[in-house]
């Protein structure tokens, strides 16, 4: 069945270091979304990618959608303590979201 | 709009009791999702409604779980009888599909503890 795998599971970085999380699907996705969940909170939408090879930026965050629309990445430049949380990708296909397992980011000041 | 509203925020119940979780989606959204989140299994999709009709309930763990959406502004997730392994945070989310989906808005979640 459809699966969305996300790596790494955990990432500990020093403030100022970069961070990347990767999302891979077993099948082609129609689009992919990224969410952030702060500790004790609920997932909050960050961005949606639709086109093959699409790249979008939000300040220090860069999102990419692979050419085959089966993988995606989120890169954070110069992490800050406010970036702490779990980042989820959610692949969308056949009217269904498939959430990745999430990458938990911890940023040490 | 107040966003997706879930109630209760916390629920502690004894094993064997019936539990009902409630969700009010954002007005105008036509899709509603129920998710369960645990440390072990992460975020799992339980059931998905489109225009109040259940489209995919393959994630519902077993017959003890049931979900309804009697109208566009209300949904329930019921567990009967509840078991300790049902302890988790249950999220409801809604979105607008037209035809491509837009972002999903999550409620604050219901933290369920079954003792």
Descriptive notes:
The complex is a heterodimer of chains A (109) and B (115). With 109 residues, chain A is mainly β. Chain A is built from no helices and eleven strands. In chain A, strands 2, 4, 5, 9, 10 and 11 form a six-stranded mixed β-sheet that branches. A five-stranded antiparallel β-sheet of chain A has the order 1-3-8-7-6, with no helix packed on it. Chain A is globular and about 40 Å long. With 115 residues, chain B is mostly beta strands. Chain B is built from no helices and eleven strands. In chain B, strands 2, 4, 5, 6, 9, 10 and 11 form a seven-stranded mixed β-sheet that branches. A four-stranded antiparallel β-sheet of chain B has the order 1-3-8-7, with no helix packed on it. Chain B is globular and about 40 Å long. The model of chain B has no long low-confidence stretch (mean pLDDT 93). Classes of the chains: A mainly beta (109), B mainly beta (115). The interface between A and B is medium-sized, with 20 and 23 residues.
Rg calculated over all Cα atoms of chain B = 13 Å
- Uncertain runs of chain A are none
The helix-strand sequence of chain B is EEEEEEEEEEE
Largest sheet of chain B: 7 strands, mixed
In whole angstroms, the N-to-C terminal distance of chain B is 36 Å
Number of distinct beta strands of chain B: 11
Q: What profile does the largest beta sheet of chain A have?
A: 6 strands, mixed
Helix content of chain B: under 10%
Q: What's the pLDDT, averaged over the residues of chain A?
A: 93
Distance between the termini of chain A: 41 Å
What is the CA-based Rg of chain A, rounded?
A: 13 Å
Oligomeric state as shown: heterodimer
Principal-axes shape call of chain B: globular
Write down how many β-strands of chain A occur, each being a DSSP E stretch of 2 or more residues: 11
**Uncertain spans of chain B:** none
**Overall geometric form of chain A:** globular
């Amino acid at each position: 069945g459809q699966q969305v795998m996300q790596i790494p599971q955990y990432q500990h970085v020093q403030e100022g270091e970069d961070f990347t999380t990767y999302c891979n699907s077993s099948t082609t996705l129609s689009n992919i979304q990224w969410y952030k969940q702060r500790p004790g909170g609920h997932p909050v939408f960050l961005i949606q990618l639709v086109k093959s090879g699409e790249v979008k930026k939000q300040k220090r965050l860069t999102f990419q959608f692979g050419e085959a629309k089966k993988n995606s990445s989120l890169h954070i430049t110069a992490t800050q303590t406010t970036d702490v949380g779990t980042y989820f990708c959610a692949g969308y296909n056949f009217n269904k979201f498939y959430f990745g397992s999430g990458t938990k980011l911890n940023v040490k000041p | 709009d107040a966003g997706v509203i879930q109630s209760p925020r916390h629920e502690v119940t004894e094993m064997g009791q019936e539990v009902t979780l409630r969700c009010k989606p954002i007005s105008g959204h036509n899709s509603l999702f129920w998710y369960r989140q645990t440390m072990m299994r992460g975020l799992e999709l339980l059931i998905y409604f489109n225009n109040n009709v259940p489209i995919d309930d393959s994630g519902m763990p077993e017959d003890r779980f049931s979900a309804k959406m009697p109208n566009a502004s209300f949904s329930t997730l019921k567990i009967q009888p509840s078991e300790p392994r049902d302890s988790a945070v249950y999220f409801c989310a809604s979105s607008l599909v037209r035809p491509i989906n837009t972002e999903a808005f999550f409620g604050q979640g219901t933290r369920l503890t079954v003792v």
